[in-house]
Amino acid sequence: MKVGIIGTGNMGTILSEALLDGKAASPSDLIVVNRTRAKAERLKHKFTGIMVANSIQEVIKHSNLIFLCVKPNDIFPLVKDNNALFKAEQCLVSITSPITTDWLENITPCSCARIIPSITNRALSGATLVTFGKKCESHWQKKLIDMFSAISLPMIIDDKITRVASDIVSCGPAFFSYMTRRFIEATVADTNIDEETATKLSEHMLIGLGDLLKKRFYSLPTLEEKVCVKGGITGEGIKVLEKELDGVFEKLLQATHRKFDDEVKHLEKVFNP
């Protein structure tokens, strides 16, 4: 089966590398294209056997499964301009949250799906969010679940929770990386620890935390309970977090949902004029 990747920016590259490292696809299966050819060539240098196409049309013509890894605003013109090339036996997958499978099904004969990856998939870990179109053939549904099981935990979700699920799975790593970085900066500014040591300790703390959860030694609440001894030092820190973080995550979600809603309204006019 030939897998086409249209767009090898950050997420297109991460998806390609994860599929290859997870043995969900072989380099000879992949046909990639990017507006800046050098980015696609970098993938080919890393994974010998990948085919770098000269055009989007070449990818569509020679692929069975096609991933659209471009910006939301670029998807409608890309699909519409090349609509004559798409075939009913192909499967078309968007990896961006504002694009619904219904919109894609209305303008292409393909089986359609939306799969929202995470940067954690690069480590063959984390989750991916899956939504199948109403007309998506069952064999494609099985193929996609099998493929993404090799690099993640694929979770089929309803459109109603797309944004908040994406906040957790796709945006979450950036949010928690930012908070960790601010934690490191505070330790360096207010104590005698150097940045390299603080960073190394923090990274291994996060890795260890992930391992504890993965191996199911503790749940998040029980883990906090085990560390936070009543009347102890950790408890004093938790009191600060409880006070200072009050309402922060609610505001974060409100901001991402506002942006998402604005994008959906704009894109809906494009897909359904």
From TrEMBL:
This is Late competence protein ComER. One of its GO terms (biological process) is L-proline biosynthetic process. Residues 163-259 form the Pyrroline-5-carboxylate reductase dimerisation domain. SUPFAM superfamilies: 6-phosphogluconate dehydrogenase C-terminal domain-like, NAD(P)-binding Rossmann-fold domains. Keywords: NADP. NADP(+) binds at residues 6-11. Residues 2-97 form the Pyrroline-5-carboxylate reductase catalytic N-terminal domain. Belongs to the pyrroline-5-carboxylate reductase family. The keyword rRNA processing does not apply. PROSITE patterns: P5CR. NCBIfam families: PRK07680.1. It comes from Lederbergia citrea. One of its GO terms (molecular function) is pyrroline-5-carboxylate reductase activity.
